[in-house]
Amino acid sequence: MQAPLQAQWNAGAPAPYQSPQSDLLAPVQAVMVRQKLQIFEQFCPACEKQNFYRIGVCDPSKVSHPPDGNEFNAMQPSFVAQEDSECLCRFFCGKMREFRMLISEAAGLDAPGQPYLRLERPFRCTIPCCCVMVCPQELSVQDAQGRHLGSVVQDWSCGRCWELACCPGGYMYYAVKGAAGDPQFYLRVMYPSLCNGCTNCCAPTCLNTAFVVDILDADSRTHLGHLKNVFPGFNCRCLADASNLVMGFPSKATPEQRALLLGALFLVEYVYFEKSDNDNSG
């Protein structure tokens, strides 16, 4: 763990909650997230670096009509996110690796300022088996003071199992839970299949520029918005592993719920869009 980031993380030990920053996302309707290019690691898989992201505020219309790579590149970040993980874990565990991530207010293009959120993802070797999922993927979210806001957990309940059995390769759900463990939202990842009209087939590529993830209400039926991974262009996709994402927040979501959805964005980003060494090597 890098010393400066370790110091910032430790500085967030639990303290009396004062909610000084929790409202930063209150006026935000949508965000754009751009992963910083790490070109060197494309040519040296053993040198997998810690991911770094810029997070900018955007108009919700950008979710319906995603921006192109130039717009993502020109974005002025409101926040930055820095992964903190071990080198061996990145190399051997790939996209399933454990990490901590500090989301801070941006003090510059790639400069972190005041800490805002802290994400923590444990290593999970997920094994779906009938109606039980062993070690589902999960991520916890804390505010800058160390207060637990909630978590994001891969959902494999009996109903989800039967839905996937009836529509093979169709959907995967992630429950966005509050501090008390109660579901606030669900993210529905749609795999290309005949059951869903081959949605997300060849995405995100030049053939289908956006991979779409649905944001659903706590009943997991009411559609509230989208998270999209947008094709970054040939240069970014061919030279390096880099993601461009855009997400719209539900209009009635509280600042804490928006923070949880931002955490869900990063879990989905790692599980589905982070390249492993096998991807890079062949």
UniProtKB/TrEMBL annotation:
Regions crossing the membrane: none
GO molecular function: phospholipid scramblase activity
Gene Ontology CC terms: plasma membrane
One Pfam family linked to the record: Scramblase
Signal sequence annotation: none
Family under the similarity heading: Belongs to the phospholipid scramblase family.
Full protein name: Phospholipid scramblase
